[in-house]
TrEMBL record:
Molecular-function GO terms, alphabetical: 8-amino-7-oxononanoate synthase activity; pyridoxal phosphate binding
Species whose genome carries this gene: Caecibacteroides pullorum
CDD domains: KBL_like
GO biological process, alphabetically ordered: biotin biosynthetic process
Domain Aminotransferase class I/classII large: 41-380
Highest taxon of source: Bacteria
Keyword Membrane attributed: yes
Obligatory cofactor(s): pyridoxal 5'-phosphate
Protein name: 8-amino-7-oxononanoate synthase
């Protein structure tokens, strides 16, 4: 068999398992998506636009009015360490550090860069990483790149197991880094950050890394995430979040100490060896971040929608671990999940199946990702 035939065989095997992925042809129309092939128009239940800001043309109009051809800067033309460090970067980082009440913040091109770059930069051969079993693929890749640092995955959200592991290993390694998400992307559940902070405080060589990709904008009194809600932004050594979801922009941040920031600027490869985000994109992020404070109505609304959908799922016998705007309907087999998803789409609801390897075998699901642009009636109309 030649190379192409081998690849084709692998693709055929994926298709046979119901796990073949394809790029959907889509057009966006506010809260709706249309598939041009069949002209179908569906309510978008798969977007990470949790606050409905990506669908908000008034907000974009307001931002556009702040721009002129001189200030609309579509490229940074280089890495921030060369000539790409525009002032708007410093403004955004100052704003984030002030709001998080941390010494510093550093902005990256995306969450994937943050998560594949920070751990390899700070871990050495005597570091042990303890990571939740369900952390995002970008963190898994970061852990791999952090080798020779070792890693142990603890059972999802099993903090008792984590406490045992920390107790067992803290005496034998130079440093331990606990890695978790605050709101988990596939189950929509949350971890207990206060308990993690209490655990970390009992040892002087334990650090805490928290990814708030799904919480930034949605949780916390001013939208800064679960760490803000639980009053522990300063207790987390690497407080990471992204701008591509609730913030309707692109990029990511870490809120951290000044020393950690300086160190990452010197050592983090996905920060150093890439062209910085376009300044106009960073300006839009800053524009949105400043408005997050006043978006409590949207936060409350989208979280209420989550409760409503979970109550409907429970009536139909679907237990859901979710406590957030991400609500999985766990069907089980991939093929059934795909059929159920197609039926939803025929009824005008654009939800997508999530299958292995993204989720464990046998837990294929329809992942509803709710946004504040949806109404209660629309959520009630989803045929479950
Ligand atoms: C989406 C996501 C990322 C990646 O962020 P991007 O900015 O899209 O690269 C990282 N971590 C988690 C938990 C995510 O859900």
């Amino acid at each position: 068999m030649n190379f192409t035939q081998e690849l084709q065989q692998a693709l055929d095997a994926l298709r046979a398992q119901g796990n073949l992925r394809r790029l959907p042809r889509l057009e966006h129309d506010g809260r709706y998506v249309t598939t041009p092939d069949d002209g179908r128009r569906m309510l978008n239940l798969s977007s990470n636009d949790y606050l409905g800001l990506a669908a908000d043309t008034d907000l974009r109009r307001e931002f556009l009015e702040t721009l002129t051809p001189e200030t609309f800067l579509p490229t940074s033309s280089s890495s921030r360490l060369l000539t790409g460090n525009f002032r708007v970067y410093d403004e955004l980082e100052d704003e984030l550090a002030r709001r998080f009440d941390t010494e510093a913040a550093l902005v990256f091109n995306c969450g994937y860069h943050a998560n594949t770059g920070i751990l390899p930069a700070v871990a050495d051969a005597q570091t042990l990483i303890l990571a939740d079993k369900l952390v995002h693929a970008s963190l898994i890749d970061g852990i791999r790149l952090a080798a020779p640092a070792r890693c142990i995955r603890y059972r999802h959200n099993d903090l008792a197991q984590l406490e045992r592991l920390v107790g067992e290993h803290s005496g034998h390694c130079h440093r331990l880094i606990i890695v978790t998400e605050s709101v988990f992307s596939m189950d929509g559940d949350r971890t207990d950050l206060r308990r993690l902070v209490a655990l970390k405080r009992r040892y002087d060589n334990v650090l805490l890394y928290v990814d708030e990709a799904h919480a930034f904008g949605v949780f916390g009194p001013t939208g800064l995430g679960c760490a803000e809600e639980e009053g522990c932004t300063r207790d987390i050594d690497f407080l990471v979040g992204t701008f591509g979801k609730a913030c309707a922009s692109a990029g990511a941040y870490v809120a951290c100490s000044r020393t950690v920031r300086d160190y990452l600027v010197n050592r983090m490869r996905p920060f150093i060896f890439t062209t910085a985000l376009p300044p106009v994109s960073v300006a839009w992020t800053l524009f949105v971040v400043r408005r997050l404070v006043a978006m409590d109505d949207r936060r409350r609304h989208v979280l209420r929608l989550g409760e409503r959908l979970r109550a409907r799922l429970a009536q139909r016998g679907y237990a859901s671990p979710s406590v957030s705007q991400i609500v999985p309907m766990i069907v089980g087999p991939s093929a059934d999940t795909v059929l159920r998803t197609e039926a939803l789409q025929r009824h005008g609801f654009y939800a997508l199946p999530v299958r292995p390897p993204t989720v464990p075998e046998g837990t294929s699901r329809i992942r509803f990702s709710l946004t504040a642009a949806l109404t209660e009636d629309e959520v009630d109309a989803i045929p479950l």
